[in-house]
Write the structure tokens for this entry.
Amino acid sequence: MSSESLEGKVKNGVGKAEAAVGEVVGDPGLALRGEARQFEGAAEEAIGSAKERLAKTAKKARVAVADAADQAADAYATLRVQAQSLADTVDPFVKQRPYAALALAALAGLVLGALFAGGPKVIYVRPPRA
């Protein structure tokens, strides 16, 4: 419990007592001050609770971000190893058969281009209305 929440509870209790004494004694000023102190205590208590919740949420967010960063680092390391393995496999092939590698790259480029282009386009032209 934060100090603001604790202060708020104390002020709220003192305000209730002050308001009760003011009503028993018949002093409207004392009763009004007690109610004002109750309101102030309730506000401080609410602020303290909000700060506590915000701190808990921030802590959870920090943990979530740290976990995501760890997962991203693990994924990057895995992908780096896989890319290095692929490079170690492809590099000797390219050095031994450069023309075959060039032909395969050109073929792959044509296939990917055809896939991304979406195939042939058909455009219909309607004759103008008379």
In short: The radius of gyration is 37 Å. The chain has a mean pLDDT of 86.
